[in-house]
What we know:
With 398 residues, chain A is of the alpha+beta class. Chain A has helices at 7-23, 26-33, 40-53, 71-83, 91-104, 107-119, 233-244, 251-267, 279-307, 314-338, 347-351, 364-373, 384-394, and strands spanning 124-127, 143-147, 150-157, 168-174, 185-191, 197-202, 211-222, 226-227, 269-270, 273-274.
Amino acid sequence: MDLNYTDEQNAFREEVRDWLIETLPRDLTEKVRLGKRLTKQDSENWHAMLNARGWLAPNWPRQYGGAEWDAVQRQIFEDECCRAHAPRLVPFGLSMLAPVLMAFGSEEQRQRFLPRILSGEDWWCQGYSEPGAGSDLAALKTRAVRDGDHYVVNGQKTWTTLGQHANWIFCLVRTDPDVKKQEGISFLLIDMKTPGITVRPIVLVDGGAEVNEVFFDNVRVPAENLVGEENKGWTYAKYLLTHERTNIAGVGFSNAALETVKEVASKVQSGGKPLAENPHFAARIAQVEIDLMAMATTNLRVVSAAAKGQAPGAESSMLKVKGTIIRQELTSLLRRAVGPDALPFQEDYLDGGDNAEMMGPEHAAASSPSYFNNRKLSIFGGSNEVQRTIITKAIMGL
Amino acid sequence: MDFNLTDERRMLQDSLGRFLADTYDHETRRKTIASGAPYDRKTYEGLVELGVLGALFSEDTGGFGGAGFDIAVVFEELGRAGVIEPVLPAVLVGSLVAQDADLVEAVISGGAIATLTHAEPLARYDLNHVASRVSGGVLTGAKHHVLNGAQATHLIVSARESGEDWDKDGIALFLVDPAAAGVTITDHVNNDGTSGATVVLENVVPSARLEGGYDALEMANARATLAICAEALGAMEAAKALTLDYLKERKQFGVPIGKFQALQHRMADVLIEIEQARSAVINLAGHLDADPVTRERHVSATKNLIGRVGALVVEETVQMHGGIGMTDEYALSHFARRITMIDHWFGDVDHHLARFIALSAA
């Protein structure tokens, strides 16, 4: 047992920290820190900075231009990025599709798509959920019928995150409706500019539109865009989901959010004193901090086992449930810390630059939208109820 | 960073686990408690022979362990088996008597049981409250909830040399012979079968004055808190294992009750929270030798979390069992009592939440 990082790991942390301070523009980190909305250009800029440094794809092997870091290094990098208020990378191409292509794609597909993910030429989105296929993802109905050297796709995807910016979508489609539902699914790569595709934004409870519906009307997709074998898509989808769950605990996000809550609570007044000195509020902050201290160690236990080659199984589900409970509690605390100034919907400020005026203390504008937006944490990537079922089945054999 | 035990600690864990699995079954333990005996002499001797007591002391004091993870490994196994034998007193006094090589040797070899005689009726969980006084070389005061006080061969007694009852300064520690004139010890049994005592001191002449005051008490308390938290973790693991088996065996409505999602999800939460408890124990074990503020922040964080998770585990595992979980005959009720009573040692959930806030603000 040794809770300390090695000298090499500490040196790596320093290197990352220094680079972030040097590289990240202040206006960008301020946007992230204050919970303002990021533009497509903001994301692309951050993507390009990381690519120039060779740190864009921490989990990729070097042969494809990745950094090939182990799980502990990736955790350190995540922590430092959160601490520096770096924007969140869009994960769909980098950490979801790419591992699937490396494991199951053709050499031609790898040569064609991986470099364009790194360069930022392609922005990928994920075509998984459908109106009738949420937690029961395998019930998906979007149909792909082979017609010569094309597939003809008809159907609808939903909750497509940042689909409005994407030029490619990877989709799970039904290629055989007459077998067990998991056995008739294929994994298809679709150019968003193909005729017959319509993207419609979904405005969410936070007033933003980060997700979309994507409609497919007789969309012709070249058969060469099939990944792996026809009707084996479920296997690839499950593989992808294990990659979606890396950094699932969100320790870095929670640490940053905790600091924000403490900062606001120390500045706003309640009964003539800082809110942080209100025993009830202080107790709520302390309890979530104590939970986070333990969860950070739970996460490091899993990460350190992963760095030694042990694949995390249902532990990911445990981290997802606990990690999202903590993150959601922190968004709730921030909203309550802000107090009555959490009331106004300050969209101009959220979309605005440095000089936009805001009502209330720092973080007021983003507090309610962030609280609303982060309801998603316990719903997406396998709802927390699905995770609990995975835990009971996998770990406990019930 | 490494979350694996060293080979030595793994061997200790294995041999202790095997010894307890072979000799310390629920029925034997239940008979000991029912007989009114404070503990089973033979089991205690077995633990001594295994070197369990030695593992709690550092090499320079005559043992072969004494670090946070030694304490954690030993007490997780003791908790898993529900051991009531007086091992915890050795951790409580371990850092206070380190200077007394003869006494340490006697504790390690099972010849002596030394326990801390500190808490007072008005103190609740505050370590700094000491109203007992030493004046003219003699001790006078009343101490309660002295762990294994009636079985102890040596009492480590706190008393005030100067200052007011709540002052941190002015507290001194003394070695007292329980048979000395003026010492009255009244024994009682706790809800979980462990033994406590009330100790009244009237003009008692101590055998020796020990080094250290409040700071030494805080360190001793930190070590004992780690031990009892690790013990709670072991007891929670045992409660979890019993419940898992029961969910698979017990049938209602024609199926094992573990098939019901209402119970599966409760069990998943129990499992998640026990992993949190394990991490909290690791955090405290890893910071036992840190600077006092960092150490004490971890003491309060860990004890608070263990208390909250402990209550959840007790309430949920009993609920999932139904009535059988409440019977004395079934082991779960014994773990439930021990885990619950652990919250009442060295500061409970509320005490440590308030203390964590105070330490974080400092």
